[in-house]
Specification:
CATH class of the largest domain: Alpha Beta
Number of strands: 24
Strand content: 15-25%
Strand order of the largest sheet: 1-2-6-3-5-4-24
CATH architecture of the largest domain: 2-Layer Sandwich
Shape: globular
Number of domains: 4
Largest sheet: 7 strands, mixed
Number of helices: 32
Distance between the termini: 20 Å
Structural class: alpha+beta
CATH superfamily of the largest domain: Metalloenzyme, LuxS/M16 peptidase-like
């Protein structure tokens, strides 16, 4: 029913849908009624069986999200087709009835559509989804976009030459995703699915079929399963619904039904009376994790009573996760991370799950602690205070979406409608959802919620997986020991949970307000700036981009660069530790409880060169966000339990990093490029264990936030300016400040290696190499040059994708990035990285250098220049519709002393770009001398047939 990613993440989410005025009363008499469908969705089915969903949504304006969903995936493959469902998806981008070869990608790029971000697809066990994000302000363009969906439905051409060319790309996708995680997953699937068909139908397939399958096997899958009765069109965007429906009916009416069609079998996972347990190890694994699933037949949501029961499940799972987050902060907690949930598993099964990351020296105690917390909730249930708080959380979440009507991204909706088509998930709309929650939550009793575990946790259909690094020093329990724990946990003596939240208040006495000493207003962008008497600057921009959400960003120069090397490790983690310790004597656990049901967050951050604050809230909770910010300056907690938990988790994450070839490779690259500088290399487990000290971390944090002088806070969102003025004057203007000292970042002496460097690192058992090329140098920094580097990188990525993927079939993808900074000195880096077969390293590296030389000597085509311009225009136009974009741009303008009104000049800046600009930039930044790093495997091994959802 759903992708394997859902098994691994196992997150139970309710889709919150669009808002229209639709209310009802929810008495017991009508709970047997069908769950309604949001009336703003235009749904229909053509005579040939094609289903369509059409919805008008203007977030973002002049754009639409288009999906072609096929109710077919790898589970339907014949024995000679293993991996060909995914291969068909690839072929959709390699020639259709209307677009030869790669013309489709090139055409869309000319419209500003970026391959990967706006043009993509994925294949899983049971579905294939094609994705397009396109403009709607030009009718011909939109019509062509619909034609592309039409082509994909029955017009993929399957040129034999293109099939053979694409074999290498699909094989490289398998290679790129290979590693310990995939190998361990491959071993776990038969255990999780009781050796069902799902264990033998990986979407990525087998390398043998990918490279050697007959052309007929590929086209047979397409002909069998790409048919209108198994397809849905999902169209959400800024358009006229009636007009789009007419276009759909006209364009797709001649899509032919298949006579004598093969049955679309829905394969199931067989039940089992015993517990299926696996202990899986790998030499390249980096952590120990444990998961247990209690499975049962899926619970369809057809009636309002089903929807209510789903709400009850959400309450139970949410409260259990809250308890686990508290458990992680207990002294000597045996777990590093833990979670729980109830929801979709795979195929016909749902599951109740518990999952944890364990300490290597406490594996069995960790498993026992996880099971104990689940058993505690089952045996004693939850408290009324826990239930009341989590009811408030769910109601606030649905209310937030309700209030954000018309401001929710179209991408959110297409995911909901995909789930409705594939799995009949409810799509009720925000108004109905909010009214339903508001009506149902008060009547859900503690007894009803506490019964959930007994409905789920039984003796049958249990699967458990322990995965861990393979090394002699690590003692692992066997399957019998794990099974004994599962069987005996119900008889263990367990204390009842005590809800410890007392009568505490966030702030009992409000501070005396400061004063505004200077006011500036920029009419063109509606931005007001206040300078406060304590040296704090406040920049505010009210918007209607969201209906009731406010973004806050605070910043000033400083950061861990101000720490001496002797306490660098403690300084680096200071904000992470202190920021998670609570404020004003209120523990982080109690702070979370106090804020449950409120839309509010605030947290301090110390990075290398900045002291920062990040926050968000509704307008009703704006004062609370500012109170929290004030207290993180004036009354941060020093909590040893939080420190111990954070230290143990951080050390554990680094414990086996050198076992991972990719992580090891990155470490070696960083060591070389930073000249082995203390603050440029990767942190180690030894540094965490020996150098991370609570007193140092807390002391450095207090030092950084003892004075607010020099801080700038930006607020963007839905608010009354006068209200923000009064609240920031009170809570930010009252912060302590040393006006005689100006905070600044410090040059820590980090310099990046330049010149010719070539290093080969040998690591790993997969037949897989990584290549990392870096061009590093000094420059006279400016924002224009920083942008120039980024654009040059985008151009090179287009060219390398064409050459290395489409023509050479040597890579699945190539990453290109351009970066420049004026800290700690004026420098830049152009980087090209890719994964490939070891035998292809030299040829592909030579191709990178060849394409770079072309950029230096040849003028790029108008077509490529237009692709860059259109993508940049699209990104800027969409960005201006989001609060976060404005926060980022206003921050940059303030830091560099620019007029904020220039934010609106993006179109002129982009249109000034010329082909010569790119040629000039290539000659400046791509020096002949550069660094080349190559990861080579230790030995050749046969690539296993992995089982994992793949994305194109």
């Amino acid at each position: 029913m759903i992708s394997v990613k859902t098994i691994i993440l196992a997150l139970l989410l309710v889709g919150v849908n669009n808002l229209e005025a639709q209310t009802t009363s929810f008495g017991e008499n009508n709970l047997n009624s069908p769950i309604p469908i949001d009336p703003t969705i235009k749904m229909g089915k053509l005579d040939n069986g094609l289903t369509y969903y059409i919805k008008k949504n203007t977030k973002p304006e002049h754009r639409a999200e288009l999906r072609l969903v096929v109710n077919a995936g790898s589970i339907l493959e014949d024995e000679d087709q293993l991996g060909l469902a995914h291969f068909v998806e690839h072929m959709a981008f390699n020639g259709t009835r209307s677009f030869e070869k790669n013309e489709l990608i090139s055409y869309l790029q000319s419209l500003g559509v970026e391959f990967g971000a706006d043009l993509n697809a994925h294949t899983s066990f049971d579905e294939t989804v094609y994705k397009l994000s396109v403009p709607t302000d030009d009718e011909q363009t939109f019509n062509t976009s619909l034609q592309i969906l039409r082509d994909w439905s029955d017009g993929i051409t399957f040129s034999e030459e293109e099939i053979d060319n694409e074999r290498g790309v699909v094989a490289e996708e398998l290679r790129a995703r290979s590693g310990a995680g995939m190998r361990m997953y491959y071993q776990s699937i038969p255990i999780l699915t009781n050796n069902s068909r799902y264990a033998d139908r990986s979407p990525i397939g087998t390398l043998d079929v990918i490279m050697n399958s007959k052309y007929e096997a590929l086209t047979r899958f397409y002909k069998d399963w790409y048919r209108p009765d198994l397809m849905a069109l999902i169209l959400v965007g800024d358009f006229d619904v009636a007009s789009v429906e007419t276009k759909v009916k006209t364009l797709f009416k001649d899509l032919k039904s298949v006579k004598n069609a093969r049955e679309r079998v829905h394969y199931t996972i067989p039940g089992h009376n015993d517990s299926k347990i696996g202990v899986i190890t790998d030499t390249e694994a980096t952590r120990v994790s444990f998961s247990v699933y209690h499975k049962q037949s899926g619970h369809e949501q057809n009636t309002l009573n089903d929807y209510r029961q789903h709400l009850v499940h959400r309450l139970y799972a949410g409260m259990l996760r809250q308890r686990m987050s508290e458990m992680l902060l207990l002294p000597d907690a045996p777990l590093l991370a833990a979670s729980a949930g109830i929801g979709d598993f795979l195929s016909n099964m749902d599951s109740y799950y518990l999952r944890a990351t364990l300490k290597e020296d406490e594996i069995l105690p960790g498993i026992e602690a996880l099971l104990t917390e689940g058993e505690r909730a089952k045996r004693y249930g939850f408290t009324q205070s826990e239930l009341d708080r989590y009811k408030a959380v769910l109601l606030n979440n649905t209310k937030t979406y309700y209030k954000e009507a018309g401001k929710i991204s179209s991408r959110y909706y297409v995911e909901q409608y995909t789930d409705h088509f594939m799995d009949n998930k409810p799509i009720v709309g925000e108004a109905f959802n909010y009214e339903f929650y508001k009506g149902m939550l008060p009547g859900i009793t503690l007894t009803e919620v506490n019964k959930v575990a007994s409905d789920w946790v039984g003796e049958n259909n249990i699967s458990a997986i322990l995965s861990a690094p393979l090394k002699e020093s690590l003692k692992l329990p066997d399957e019998k020991e794990i099974n004994d724990l599962l069987n005996t946990i119900s008889t263990k003596k367990i204390d009842k949970y005590e809800d410890s939240l007392g009568d505490v208040q966030l702030m009992t006495k409000k501070p005396t307000p400061g004063e505004i000493v200077e006011t500036n207003y920029n009419e063109k962008v509606n931005v007001t700036t206040w300078k406060l008497s304590n040296g704090v600057t406040v920049i505010v921009k009210p918007t209607e981009l969201q209906n009731d959400l406010i973004s806050m960003s605070g910043f000033r120069p400083g950061g861990s660069s101000q720490a001496p090397d002797s306490i660098f490790v403690s300084a680096y983690y200071a904000s992470n530790i202190v920021g998670a310790s609570g404020i004003n004597g209120i523990s982080t656990t109690d702070l979370k409880k106090l804020n449950m049901g409120k839309t509010v967050s605030a947290r301090p951050i110390i990075n290398y060169y900045d002291d920062l604050f990040s926050g968000s809230s509704s307008e009703a909770n704006l004062e609370r966000m500012l109170q929290m910010t004030h207290l993180y300056f004036t009354a941060p907690n020093k909590d040893e339990n939080v420190f111990d938990a954070k230290k143990a988790t951080t050390a554990s994450l680094m414990k086996n990093m050198e076992s991972s070839p990719g992580a090891y490779f990155s470490m070696k690259v960083r060591e070389t490029m930073s000249n082995n500088h203390l603050r440029g290399i990767s942190m180690t487990e030894g540094q965490i264990n020996n150098e991370l000290m609570l007193d140092q971390a807390y002391g450095f944090y207090k030092d950084r936030f003892s004075s607010a002088n020099g801080f700038t806070f930006i607020f963007v969102g839905s608010f009354d300016v006068d209200k923000v003025k009064n609240l920031t004057t009170q809570y930010l203007g009252s912060l302590p400040s040393n006006m005689q000292e100006t905070s600044s970042w410090k040059d820590i002496g980090l310099r990046y290696a330049e010149g010719s460097i070539k290093k080969t690192i040998v690591k790993g058992v997969e037949e897989k190499s990584q290549v990392d090329l870096q061009f590093v140098g000094k420059l006279d920094f400016s924002l224009e040059k920083k942008n120039q580097l980024s654009l040059l990188a985008k151009l090179l990525k287009i060219k390398l994708t064409e050459e290395m993927r489409e023509k050479m079939a040597g890579v699945y993808g190539v990453r290109v990035s351009g970066f420049a900074s004026d800290r700690p000195y004026d420098w830049y880096r152009m980087q090209v990285a890719f994964t490939c077969a070891p035998e292809n390293v030299d040829a592909l590296t030579d191709k990178v250098l060849e394409e770079i030389e072309k950029l230096k000597t040849e003028t790029i085509s108008e077509e490529d220049l237009n692709k860059i311009k259109e993508a940049e225009l699209t990104n800027a136009e969409e960005g201006l519709k989001y609060n976060g974009y404005w926060v980022s741009k206003l921050k940059t303008a303030h830091e560099y002393g620019l007029d904020p009104a220039k934010i609106l000049d993006y179109e002129a800046d982009i249109n000034r770009l010329t082909a010569e600009d790119f040629k000039e930039a290539a000659n400046i930044y791509f020096k002949k001398e550069h660094a080349t790093f190559i990861l080579m495997p230790e030995e050749k091994v046969e690539t296993p047939d992995y089982k994992l959802e793949e994305k194109y």
